[in-house]
Amino acid sequence: MAAQITTPSSSLRDITKIERIGAHSHIRGLGLDDNLEPRKNSQGMVGQGKARKAAGLILKMVREGRIAGRAILFAGPPGTGKTAIAMGMAQSLGSDVPFTAIAASEVFSLSMSKTEALTQAFRRSIGVRIKEESEIIEGEVVEIQIDRSLTGATKTGKLTIKTTDMETIYDLGTKMIDALSKEKVLAGDVVSIDKASGRISKLGRSFTRSRDYDAMGADTKFVQTPEGELQKRREITHTVSLHEIDVINSRTQGFLALFAGDTGEIKPELRAQINSKVSEWREEGKAEIVPGVLFIDEVHMLDIECFSFLNRALESEFAPLVVMASNRGMSKIRGTQYRSPHGLPVDLLDRVLIVSTTKYEPEDIEQIIQIRCQEEDVTLTAKALTVLTAMAQSTSLRYALNLISSAQVVAKKRKPGPHTDSNGEAVKEGEVGVDDLRRCYTYFLDEARSVQWVGEQQGILVSDEVEPGDRMQL
Ligand SMILES: Nc1ncnc2c1ncn2[C@@H]1O[C@H](COP(=O)(O)OP(=O)(O)OP(=O)(O)O)[C@@H](O)[C@H]1O
Ligand SMILES: [Mg+2]
């Protein structure tokens, strides 16, 4: 069957992501130097040198296209930076290498089968770099003439455009007129118009107009009037994911589903057609495969069916690098009675490279706290920083990081003006001192105190019946 496979245009990629302050928003990369040696404190990353270096090595292989179809597992105690390192990898990958992050439990909560959800995640992580020839019109605008109908509802017009060698008049429809006025195109501008999409980009103002001072802003760029033919062919490349190609060609879904995120199940026959078409493009030199990274956090939440699917999928023709993270030790493989390291079946474990993360040293913790304070715009006094670092050691890093913003709220509630803490330290207005931290420490329980408190409430809180001494198996 001669399949007509269309690809989404590059403009789809223009949707910008909204940045907010989240748990990992301070991470801007892995903080490695050119030799992949971890810097002490760089790009928001501190300590955990071995794991960062391993992540850097893996990334290098991804960039060289040498590691598709492999799997990596970050294993270590909670709060040791597994998710943070994966986010750092995503930041250093470059814009056209796809990175998909999912939490294993998402696979169960979508309105589709587990394997479909995993397949979509796999295909989101494979990029197809497509080379396309497009026709453009490039020249200096000589004149724009617009005629409005009496009601103003319809507009027609003419655009006169030239190169150093020729001049042509084009008829304009309403859409083009709107596009021209949106870009504020004037006579004397050098523009490039994509014939297929009608997209107009302003390249600058023509040198011949450099004396028209009144039509100039401070950032006006002057360019030469183009030479030769008005219409040119130009090669452009853009990268889309296999999943985007799937969705756009899926008859029941179509283009809008990509924005809604509600893609439903996609037929295997369609995927097969797309795979063979993409292979064909690759052989003809029209497209390149860019294997990306799929990150599955909390991977022990997958069940035995998902694991066996992963085993197979990793061996398929289009497989990304799969990075997994887990904080479990010996635990049950979901869906079975068997226990296994990290809750992963041994045949999968056998295929993965395991990178371990370890607990942080006090100086690392202090630096992570400082970085988070900068990120959240909070100033701690010197003593407060020491106290919070000590708290992080006796409770957990996460607990301490959570206290930063709550302590700031408490600090803001103080009477305006400077104040002296109970330990004698002067605290400026807006700063967080030891007293503010102490107060928050009493408001919010950490894990150990919570366990103790629950123990004290025996018979008062409603509890599930458990055997004495039974604890959640980590
Ligand atoms: N090396 C590091 N440099 C800077 N920030 C870090 C580092 N390690 C962890 N953090 C920060 O500490 C917090 C906890 O780390 P993270 O969420 O990565 O832990 P995790 O290993 O994924 O734990 P879990 O097993 O509970 O998921 C996050 O806000 C993270 O950004
Ligand atoms: Mg995590």
TrEMBL record:
GO terms for molecular function: ATP binding; ATP hydrolysis activity; DNA helicase activity. The keyword Disulfide bond does not apply. GO terms for biological process: chromatin organization; DNA repair. Keywords: Activator, ATP-binding, Chromatin regulator, DNA damage, DNA repair, Helicase, Hydrolase, Nucleotide-binding, Nucleus, Transcription, Transcription regulation. It is found in: Nucleus. It is an enzyme of class 3 (hydrolase). Its EC number is 3.6.4.12. GO terms for cellular component: nucleus. It catalyses: ATP + H2O = ADP + phosphate + H(+). The keyword Chloroplast does not apply. SMART domains: AAA. Residues 68-359 form the AAA+ ATPase domain. Belongs to the RuvB family. DNA helicase which participates in several chromatin remodeling complexes, including the SWR1 and the INO80 complexes. The SWR1 complex mediates the ATP-dependent exchange of histone H2A for the H2A variant HZT1 leading to transcriptional regulation of selected genes by chromatin remodeling. The INO80 complex remodels chromatin by shifting nucleosomes and is involved in DNA repair. Also involved in pre-rRNA processing. DNA helicase participates in several chromatin remodeling complexes, including the SWR1 and the INO80 complexes. This is RuvB-like helicase. It comes from Sistotremastrum niveocremeum HHB9708.
